[in-house]
Amino acid sequence: MAIYSMFTTYIGNSIVNSYPNSNTSFSMFYHLYKLFYLQFERKKKNKIPSSIPKPYHLFYSFTKI
Q1: For the whole model, what pTM was predicted?
Q2: Are 15 and 34 contacting, i.e. CB atoms less than 8 angstroms apart?
Q3: Distance between CA atoms of residues 65 and 42, nearest Å
Q4: Could you report the per-residue pLDDT of 6-63, keeping only the tens digit for each?
């Protein structure tokens, strides 16, 4: 759990630093929500093709949002 929280905090901080004018806590929560929750929702709805290798699933789903 600690590794997971460090990982999400690192991603969130890098996302927030790329959006300097936005509300820090909101943008971190919203973009992590987009990355992790909507990824699985779209995987269920759109049935991401299994021909795509697994490391590319995150990128594939993020580009479709």
Answers
A1: 0.24
A2: no
A3: 9
A4: 666 666 666 556 555 555 566 667 777 777 776 666 666 656 555 555 555 555 555 5
The label of the residue with tokens 């779209």 reads: 42
**Residue that has been written with the tokens 């820090």 in this structure:** 24
Q: Which conformational region is residue 19 in: left (phi greater than 0), alpha (psi within -120 to 50 degrees), or beta?
A: beta
Q: Which helix (H) or strand (E) holds 41?
A: helix 38-46
What's the CA gap between 52 and 65, in Å, rounded?
A: 17
Other beta carbons within 10 Å of 65: 10
- Report the SS3 class of residue 37: helix
CA distance 7 to 4: 5
Kindly state the DSSP code that residue 22 receives in the 8-state scheme.
S
